[in-house]
Structure prediction request, 670 residues.
Amino acid sequence: MRGTPRRSISSQTFSGILARLLKGSWEAPPNLDSKTQAPNPGQADAVAVKIPNALASRITRRLSNSDFKTIDEYVAFVLDQVLTELEGNEPGANRNAENVFSKEDQASVEQRLRDLGYM
Amino acid sequence: MGCRLGKLVVVGLDGATLDIMRPMFAEGRLKNFAKLSQRGATGVLTSTILPLSATAWNTFATGKNPGKHGIYDFSRRVPGTYQHAPTTSRDRGGRTLWQYASDAGRRCLIVNVPLTYPPEPVNGIMISGFPYPEKRRDFALPPETLDEVEKELGITHLHKPSPHFLKPGDERKLVDDMLAITQSQTKVVRHFMKKESWDLVATVFDATDVVSHFFWQYIDPKNPKYDRKKAEVFGPLFYDVYDSVDTAFGELAADLGPEDNTFVISDHGFGPVYYAVYMNNWLLDNGYLKLRRTAGTRFRRASFRLGITTDFLFRTAKRLGLVGSHTYAYSGKSRSLELAKKLSLSLDDIDWDRSEVYSYGNYGQFFINVRGREPRGMVEPGDRYQKIVGELKEKLRGLRDPKTGRTLFDIIYTKDEIYSGPYFDMAPDIVFFDSTMTYRAHRLFEFGSRSMIAPDPIYSGSHRMDGVLIAGGPDIAQGADPAGARLLDLAPTIAHLLGLPVPSGMDGRVLAGLFRPSSRFASQKVQYLDEGSAENLRRATRSLLKAGKRL
Prediction:
């Protein structure tokens, strides 16, 4: 890859995304809840990543037929999905029973555990 | 892998022990397990530390030590609080055997494996095991599975038998419930097994665990609760439950072919328990735990000194006929539990700003109240932490029953000695237990008894480290010795037998000594899957393409 021209996919789209966020037109990718949602590349804590120009061009060609408007969104979504899949359950990511149980469900499970002497 | 492999079937018997099975074999009972045992390999399968079902079945599922899967008990600490909440499959780190098998295109049928709620998508069917909210019908995937079970088999649930109604005279009812659930589960597994040729089938029967906890007193004349007349009536029921899982296994085995391999396993063993040890009392007496200085706590402390404890209140209520049994009284349904909490000491009375150590959970767990980790931690990490841990370990080694002089806990570990992985920080700082479980650190959730040691108010049987492994099939050598086999080793062994590489993050090893010398798996070198490898990335990418997003 040495010498391959690279394009930054950093904050050049920040203003565009911010504008869409303000207009309420930012749409989270489907099937993703808040825990798995790809980081918004327009956020202030985004970092610049360089990819080869050729790859960026390939992505650009796909954008019009995809659910993404920018290279940043596309790359962030793909990387987030791949990493989530690779990591399985990320330590600490799901350790919140409230996400699994309603208050009533949790009480019923706790009672069953107590009935059996487990809790 | 060339020609198609047979099925790999795992039948789990929660808490089953060879101490019960071998004498039954000798009497000509448990014929189906005995047949598998004679054809294959039989021995002890060492459980996890602690030998708790929640921890153990997750180690079975992942092939990882608890430091990598993060399930240390049926409950977990809620971050930022001293509260606890039930653990679920979402709390588990690390992927399961059936997730790897699904990725590789293997068809999986997973039924009633504990701690699998909420169910995970697999290439096949998953029906979650205990515990889950039983009023809900979201404990299976694909979701239509439960409708099919109800429509075609008339079965509405596979809930773990509950002893909460166990009042004198209800023993038969509890056993009938266990037998019925075992039968229903067998029907469900057979129904799906007949529908297609699966690659991996895993199902766990709960009844052996429940009957062992509550009915051991009827087969053990040494138990302080032993009553000869009751033993004559209810003792045989204990063995009926073992017979019922043998019958279930026989029915499942009848559907298997000569190319299929079978593992009958338990997550831990079992044996009698006589005494409960209340370790928060010990921490209190030794100055590690301090109580609040409020009027309410002072009142409860004074009551506690007079012997007014939850245990005392329940025993009194029982004598007065207000409740049926300790088991019922301790359940969340009991109004007396709420009243007892107001009158007797509980963890709510602890002054966290002055307490260095507390105990919570099952079978012996100490947590140091570490600054920066616990919400009101007061022990500095580093030297102070190490000093307290060392002190506690030394004192635990010396703890004895003042009446008999017997050592209370012979297995004592600090977390760094046995756990490693991303969930290391969540582990208890010290775990300890009596390997015979004659003494069981108990009811660490409150100050249940004024004494440090008292008769166990709930159980008459409790867990041991030595579980069961019986393996048989075309690839298993007859008479092979599984000496040294650990529950940790099952997932890698099964992965290998499914023709899959063993994920590098698994801590167990392939039990190659079980394989018949002529088996392809004996000569085939174990392949390992580097979880960060390009192949894994390709798999993740395939999964991405299935996400339904236009890319």
